[in-house]
Amino acid sequence: MPILLxxxxxxxxxxxxxxxxGLRKGDVREVFIANGKTLIYxxxxxxxSIYSDFVPSEEEAEEIKRVHLYVERFKYLIDVERLAxxxxxxxxxxxxxxxxxxxxxxxxxxxKGTKAGTKFHLHLVRFWREKPIETEITTGDIVLVSKGNPxxxxxxxxxxxxxxxxxxxxxxxxxxxxxxxxxVRIDLYVNDVTFKRMxxxxxxxxxxxxxxxxxRNTVIGLREPEHFTEIPFEPVDSRLNETQRLAVSRALGxxxxxxxxGPPGTGKTSTITELIVQLVKRGExxxxxxxxxxxxxxILLNLSKYPDLKLVRIGHPARxxxxxxxxxxYALFEEHPKAQKVKEGWERVKELIExxxxxxxxxxxxxxxxxxxxxxxxxxxxxxxxxxxxKLMRSMxxxxxxxxxxxxxxxxxxxxxxxxxxxxxxxxxxxxSTNSMVKSELLEGFHFDSAVIDEGSQQVEPSTxxxxxxxxxxxxxxxxKQLPPTVASEEAKELERTLFERLxxxxxxxxxxxxxxxxxxxxxxxxxxxxxxEGKLVAAPEVKERTLADFNLEAPRKFKKVxxxxxxxxxxxxxxxxxxxxxxxxxxxxxxxxxxxxxxxxALELHRMGLDRREIGIITPxxxxxxxxxxxxxxxxxxxxxxSVDGFQGREKEAIIVSFVRSNDEGEIGFLKDLRxxxxxxxxxRRKLVAIGNTKTLSSHSTYSRFIEHVKREGELERA
Length: 720
Fold this sequence. Notes:
There is one protein chain. The protein is α/β, with parallel strands linked by helices. The protein is 38% helix and 18% strand. It folds into 4 domains: 96-191, Elongation Factor Tu (Ef-tu), domain 3; 194-310 and 429-514, 3-Layer(aba) Sandwich (Rossmann fold), CATH 3.40.50.300; 339-425; 522-719, Rossmann fold (3-Layer(aba) Sandwich). The strands form 5 sheets. The protein has a 7-stranded parallel sheet, with helices on both faces. A 6-stranded antiparallel β-barrel has the order 4-5-8-7-6-9. The protein has a 6-stranded parallel sheet with strand order 21-20-22-23-19-24, with helices on both faces. It is globular and about 95 Å long. 42% of the residues are buried.
């Protein structure tokens, strides 16, 4: 039986409180903290009878204990993951040469910077080089800029734009002059601000009250969610199918939460766009989020089609797509009627700084122990003091007075800016942001009627909790049959189980699955539909029979059966040639030279047949194989997108080539056993899927065996 203290007590504070009760630290077995209270379990339970006034109800004790354990567990996992990501990054920078890291797409070398002006409050630098840039670094990524050893640099910026030979980076402050010299290097960087925000949010949820406490307890499993009632509505998007309309109708009538399960190509974004518009029509203020900037921009792009909506995109201006900049809070700030006054205020501050800097700054060695007030007093009187000549005294006094005016003006301008930002947010119908940015100062104190969260199956639970903590109810869209969030630490692997997946398994009745897919030819869809979606998916009539034959391509000269434009599904079997996997020294990844060669040949042949190279993608589960294929493509001076399965999630192309890599006599397939990886890989193409692999090795796993049989039955299998 525990005792309960009002207030938060830990460390020395707890010891002092125990002392007041006549207890010692040694009397305590366990301590749990939540809801602004401290729950204490004593080693000697008979002591509890002495403190009967402090004994809580079983229900309250259980709540505090469960909340405490939930928060502490996730805080620990976040910390472990944060350290693992930073360590992995630093270790890779140490272990690999710059060239090797560049081949992996995580660094760009031999750059020279030129000034590219300013934008909002940011300083832009355009880095360029003669050799074309091929990289995984994309717009919105945080990068470490260095000259020499990257680990000795602390210059961070955000990528604004990438062209064939340039990378434009935005810096919050004026960058040092060395960025304008040759030999600059850019590295992809791990941002730990996101981790800190997740931890801060967990601490806030620990002591939540009112509606936030109810939602927190629902998420943890301490409170049963209320069931939905279907709400009839008039869709703004007439193209929505029956399952999309049903999902919106049920979501609108859900008091606590609702989950929208969107398998590949089923119009998940269109559905959540409709939901957001309907919520606004009902007078709600909505926060719409995703874990990544790309997905947040995707929500904004869809919402921007409705001109009556007042939209605000929160986030670093460098991480917002150029065509959506007009919705950025910084762009809206510049259009605000009071913005000109603020601009003029900053110009005046600049003038005052120039004026101040004509005087002598009272550094410690010149002050001789005098305070600001004393210097101003003697300066005004025109007197010397403590051996400081009166001319110097007057100059230091002028510096202090000018500096005081600068401080006062800066404080007033910052308050004006905050007021304008808050006005813009308060006026918005929908605020669009990444999960992490919901914890930024800009949104401090704002509360929303509903949170609509996209990419729910690709974000760790503590990330999803950030928007949930700011709303009265929430809606999550995702697909737990695709890849979970990437977790670097083995110890933190349980972070892969997302809140979306957890809630859909415990409260499946509060979810709706979208069933009409608008991406793939029916024969490409059939296998993942049967294996992962219980056969519930239907191909829309307009995509059902789409093939590359629609593009009037030339006939293939190689792999004639598999590359026949009218055949949507093909497999190139390497089991009869010497195409074994290989593990590069010091690496945990695998590569397969023969498969890489075939993948490149297939891409080149599809292009020769007349398919635009931008509509060809090569997917492979292993980083070493990505690197190898990129090398082979570079040797052939041909460029198509090559990426890991994770890197292609959420994307699509007309033709996708999949290299499975694993090829051995033992039937070992490693992390291909995670079938979500297979699902993502084979659901990216619209018209053509070409798989490359060793059918004997892959068939050791029953699902891959069924996939190969499906291709034989519905497509073409050809020996390499």
